[in-house]
Amino acid sequence: MARDVKNFLSHGSFHQQSGKHVRAHPRNLRHSRLFTIFTFSRSLRRVSRTIRGKSDPFLQNIELPEVDWTDYVKNTFPRIWESKKNNGNVRISELAILAGLAEQCRPKSNIFEIGTFDGRTTLNLALNAPESCNIHTLDLPPELATKYELADGERHMVEKPVSGSRFRRYLGSHPRAIGRIHQLFGDSAAFDYKSYENSCSLVFVDGSHAYDYAISDTRAAFSMVEAGGTIVWHDYGIWKGVTKALGDLEAGERLGLRNIRGTSLVIWSKGS
């Protein structure tokens, strides 16, 4: 069930729309008090802790240039389902950006997500993408031995009762959209991505936050994205491994990675 994102971004609360989705224009992200306050408070917190000489394990130094989300998201009206944020989910503002990017995907192309978790982002990608797009989402089974060590504090995102539980509950109400979700299982550092090379109009990297995985998943994302496609990473500036990996890649290869201002998202588009 969708909720009124516009009202939430403007006033910090939701009005439930029983049985209906609500389209919310992304411009409300830019001008909302909530989004502005969050951006400011995040910057203020960073400055305050620096002055006091205190560290924060989930507040990293960021160096990538910033861009506005409107540089990448067109004037669409993304629909948002499952607005409640669980630990490990993207924020509602970030979800709206991803939904807007999904809506712009090339028809008949693939969308690939590394890191399914509870399936909240997967659901919104499927419900906003063109009906001819297929969504592939890769998750790590809890019993599978990993190529690299996971980051401290992320095991709970692997050891969950059901992978993709939040999109599975929509199979009855949205069978066509959920039917386009292809759930994959494996270690992202060992997975064979050949079938998806140069076929994805959108790749969302939100797997393990460990440095080695962030590097490996990024390499995989670059192999899958098609000309004109986009890659988005989550948790930049939040998890040390992700932040350092993306910073090192940009410093060494000058890829043109950009941090979407006020979010933990990094974005890159492949030229046509």
Q: Give the number of DSSP strands.
A: 8
Side by side, the strands of the main sheet go 1-7-8-6-5-2-3-4
Secondary-structure-based class equals alpha/beta
Give the CA-based shape: globular
Low-confidence stretches: 1-20, 25-41
Per the CATH scheme, the topology name is: Rossmann fold
Helix/strand order? HHHEHEHEHHEEHEHEE
Computed over alpha carbons, the radius of gyration is 18 Å
CATH class category: Alpha Beta
Number of helical segments?
9
Helix percent reads 25-40%
Query: Architecture, according to CATH?
Result: 3-Layer(aba) Sandwich
What is the arithmetic mean of pLDDT?
A: 85
Largest β sheet strand count, sense and barrel closure: 8 strands, mixed
N/C terminus separation: 36 Å
Q: Please tell me the total number of domains.
A: 1
CATH H level, superfamily name: Vaccinia Virus protein VP39
- The portion of residues forming beta strands comes to 5-15%
